[in-house]
Amino acid sequence: MIVVAGESLIDLVPDGAAAGPLPALVPRRGGGPYNTAVALGRLGAEVAFCSRVSTDAFGEALMGGLREAGVATGLVQRGPEPTTLAVASVGADGSAEYGFYVEGTADRLFALPERLPEGVRAVAFGTCSLALEPGASAYEALLRREAERGALTLLDPNIRPGLIPDAAAYRERFASWLPYVSLLKLSEEDAAWLGGSPAHWLERGPSAVVVTRGAAGLTVHTPSYEVSVPAVRVKVADTIGAGDTVNAALLHGLADRPVDSLDAGAWSALLTYAARAAALTCTRPGAEPPYAHELTAH
Q: 47, 86, 91, 214: most buried, per Cβ within 10 A?
């Protein structure tokens, strides 16, 4: 089983048919970890979501989306606090920027679970959940505990600068996570904000670093080699959820293989699979990752 730990929220996405400075906003289920869990479920993986979700109407919709995707919800904590909102603005190229409403929301109050189920082989972390206290410390404790237990761990920092009041402190904290990370995946923008390099991060612990480069494709850096694959050309509705879909495709494609066991050919195949999955997500408004049958269709 794969566990995805982190926040869920509601993306308020501009209605593509609306115009003007105040377009109508359409609510869509989202949050980086939530999208990753849903994508894994749609790809056919055995996956569970580990988070705290509101009991409000948005929270119920989020829980419904997990169940529809076949994601186990036994690790989800519930609370009466409101659901986090992310207001998206979409650029001409489909890229998205966000404003967040996070004060007093349910996912910030996540508590460290006593244990994860037997048979968990991988745990994924990232995005707002690692930046917003008090939940961030609980997720960090879970990362360290599961890594020490021997689970494969994936970290996608998915930097949201507006949620990070002290950039220097966050960068130090990010560096402290690396010895507990098996696979680091991040965008070029994340890498530039963090100010490091794949070679430096590899020295701190991860077995591989995957960098997403938008329309330029994906690259994996390992201690021995680099492998790049091109992006799949599609008509882009927006890029919301594309990186989260890459996370899911990497975890699903790894199956039971350790990250450091893949050779260059295996990485090329895995990155190509991830690129195809992300491209399909980009053809749809909001975070709507593909189903397994869509990736096997010719």
A: 47
Residues with Cβ within 8 Å of residue 71, at least 6 apart in sequence? 37, 38, 40, 41, 47, 48, 49
Tokens of 193: 């904000």
Residue 277's identity, in one-letter code, is A
Tens of pLDDT, residues 223-243: 999 999 998 888 888 778 899
Query: What gap in Å lies between CA 297 and CA 291, rounded to an integer?
Result: 10
Report pTM: 0.93
Question: Containing H/E element for 172?
Answer: helix 167-177
Tokens 């972390």 locate to 125
Rounded CA-CA distance 193/188 in Å is 9
Phi, psi angle pair for 77, to nearest 5°: -90, 150
Burial of 183 (0-12, 13-18, 19+ CB in 10 A): buried
